[in-house]
Amino acid sequence: MSIPEGSKRRLVLLERLLSDYSEKTITSQKIQQLTGWSSAVVRRDILNIDVKCGATNGYKVAELKEALVNQLYDFKDKEVKCCIVGLGKMGQRFLDTNELYDSPFKIVAGFDSSVNKTEVLSSSFPLHPTPKMKQIIQEEKISYALLTVESFEAQDMANLLVESGIKGIVNYTPCVLSVPEEVKVENVSLLTALYQLKA
What we know:
Elements: H1 5-19, E1 25-26, H2 28-35, H3 39-47, E2 54-55, E3 58-60, H4 61-72, E4 80-85, H5 89-92, E5 105-112, H6 115-120, E6 127-129, H7 133-140, E7 144-147, H8 151-164, E8 168-171, E9 184-187, H9 190-198
Parallel strand pairs: 4-5, 4-7, 5-6, 7-8, 8-9
Antiparallel strand pairs: 1-3, 2-3
């Protein structure tokens, strides 16, 4: 079943919320209190996934979380490799991030056009100059990239990522990237987020 985009975003957030939820069951009303989504929207969203964990007093948390993971992520591999492209201030935030802990995503490489940065910065994974990007991405079978370069480099780096076989890009630049339809882009922009809040 194809899940509508808005519903999918809420279900991803719900899965994250359940990771820190200590009770054995949760009701749609409780989810409404925690998220601000109406209980009707919550129930409709959960109907979009193959879940059989209803209880008279709510959903069974462990089973709901498992259903969310299986339906939303469908990982065939236990580890999904990612890389960082751009090691400026934004990129450096991800060098030792804990955000991906206990997830299938693992950052395995970083790239920057400045050889000095790749040699000076400290990281738990290898850092490479961008001319090696295509080779490393293909050798390591990296699927996704976090793009944190300066605006003037964004499209060129996106093009190189596409050529390298990347399946998706988390775009932290303010640029609108032009990529083939099969390559997914998730834009993460402070300015865009603020405009959306104001709209």
